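Before relying on records like the one below, remember that each one covers exactly one chain. Contacts with other chains, cofactors or solvent are not represented anywhere in the record.
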Amino acid sequence: MNVFTKTIMCVALTAAASSASAAVIKFDAAYGVTNAQAAEASFLANSYNQETETFDGFANTGQDDNTDQGSWIQAASTFNTAVGDFTNTAADSSPNGDEFFTTSLLIENNETGEFGRADSYSSQWLDSNDADEVRWDILDGNYNAFGFFLSDANDQGAALKLTFNDGTEETLQLNNPLRDGNLMYITLVSDVLFSGVTLTFNNGEGNNDGWGIDNVTLASVPEPATLALLGLGLAGMTTFRRRK
């Protein structure tokens, strides 16, 4: 690698690392099974440095009493996962009376799951257990993007709020309303690496409605500014070589 090439790459990497802002530069929600699966495939193909949590590694230590609300794999207020911690930060404020461990999140599968989420996921997933609010403390690392399947969300109104460690907040509104049993694939790219970043799933107080999440992937995606600098560098290098 010659000096010119090294200089261009250093400039691009420095620009990416020194970004002073914290903002979402891309947010998409692909609705429906076909579109959601295609969105996941595209996200995985166009990112690198990936870490995925499928929730399939959690052993069955729960109970199964053959009812929608009374069956689960595991129940806990916080689940520590490969992509960070998921915590029930505001329990269901209007439980039906047939729910268990309302302050917990649940790991479910297609035998214990409820409300059509089993049709969306072929394996285990994390269920909100009708919590009014769930917080995902995103794992720190060289990640600036994430993607995940979200099922049965927002049929009564919901929003996602991304909070950066500098206090910047981005509210990511889903289409409203959506039918029961819906499936979408969420993708987001930030202009900074995730460090002390949280994503809050706000389901609204008193809605008594839940959702499921699966195949949560953290990844790295080149920022547009970085790609532009690299493009200019390659163009300049080509001109330099021609002149030489």
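Helices lie at 3-17, 33-45, 117-120, 224-243.
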